[in-house]
């Protein structure tokens, strides 16, 4: 069984990652194959697992998409070990501030909708972001919020499921189509393996 946290949540373990993301024959020797197979994963789903803390991701060197929505996570942390990450869902958690994302230089898609973010630290958002969803957080009600975010992120094309219209050109649309081919997650609606919506468009429905 996954290790329990003091808050009666679940800790991320290699066993949990394997259970949700890999399939082995019953007679397969997991201890011999686990490390190499985890290292080959590109998309990891750990949504709806009652996870309270992000950790133990060091074996996921090649992932580009990580689903952690609908858990009990309070802090964004311990992601520097997966610098290749480009797609991150932390929607529907208990996160209060944006932090520890600057170690992800390739991050393009970030969903933090449905959290507890009151004040947004713009300097903590990677400049590489193309799509950002913060709907359902109090910070979105601040005066000038949208203008400040788009000014801070020069590559941003979509904020809170609304396009940054002045930045869209025909070339951008072609690039977006290419992104959907590379990232099936972008074709939407996005559903977790457990059947609950992970995204609808660029955020939770």
Would you mind describing this structure in some detail?
This protein is an alpha/beta fold. The protein has one domain: Leucine-rich repeat, LRR (right-handed beta-alpha superhelix), CATH 3.80.10.10. The protein is 20% helix and 12% strand. The protein has four helices and nine strands, in the order H-H-E-E-E-E-E-H-E-E-H-E-E. The chain has helices at residues 14-21, 30-40, 145-152, 170-182; strands at residues 43-45, 65-67, 87-89, 109-111, 131-133, 158-159, 162-163, 190-191, 197-199. The strands form two sheets. Strands 1-2-3-4-5-6-7 form a seven-stranded mixed beta sheet. Strands 8-9 form a two-stranded antiparallel sheet. Strand 8 and strand 9 (197-199) form a beta hairpin. The longest helix has 13 residues, at 170-182. The two termini are 32 Å apart. One of its GO terms (cellular component) is motile cilium. It is found in: Cell projection, Cilium, Flagellum. Residues 167-205 are annotated as: Disordered.
In short:
The chain has 205 residues and is an alpha/beta fold. It has helices at residues 14-21, 30-40, 145-152, 170-182, and strands spanning 43-45, 65-67, 87-89, 109-111, 131-133, 158-159, 162-163, 190-191, 197-199. It contains 4 helices and 9 strands.
Order of strands in the sheet with the most strands? 1-2-3-4-5-6-7
Which regions are unreliable across 5 or more consecutive residues at pLDDT < 50? 1-6, 187-205
Percent of residues in β-strands = 5-15%
Q: Give the biggest sheet.
A: 7 strands, mixed
Instruction: Supply the number of helical segments.
Output: 4
Arithmetic mean of pLDDT: 81
CATH A-level architecture: Alpha-Beta Horseshoe
Report the helical percentage. 10-25%
């Amino acid at each position: 069984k996954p290790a329990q946290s003091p808050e009666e949540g679940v800790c991320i373990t290699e066993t949990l990652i394997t259970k949700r993301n890999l399939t082995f024959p019953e007679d397969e020797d997991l201890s011999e194959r686990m490390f190499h197979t985890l290292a080959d994963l590109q998309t990891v789903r750990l949504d709806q697992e009652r996870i309270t803390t992000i950790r133990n991701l060091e074996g996921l060197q090649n992932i580009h998409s990580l689903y952690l929505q609908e858990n009990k996570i309070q802090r964004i942390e311990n992601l520097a070990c997966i610098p290749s990450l480009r797609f991150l869902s932390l929607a529907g958690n208990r996160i209060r501030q944006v932090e520890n994302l600057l170690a992800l230089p390739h991050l393009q898609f970030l969903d933090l909708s449905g959290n507890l973010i009151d004040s947004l630290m713009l300097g903590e958002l990677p400049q590489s972001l193309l799509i950002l969803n913060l709907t359902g957080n109090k910070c979105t009600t601040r005066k000038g919020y949208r203008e400040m975010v788009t000014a801070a992120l020069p590559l941003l094309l979509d904020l809170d499921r609304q396009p940054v219209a002045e930045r869209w050109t025909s070339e951008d649309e072609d690039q977006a189509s290419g992104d959907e081919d590379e990232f099936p997650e972008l074709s939407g609606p996005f559903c977790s393996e457990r059947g609950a919506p992970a995204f609808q468009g660029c955020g939770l429905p």
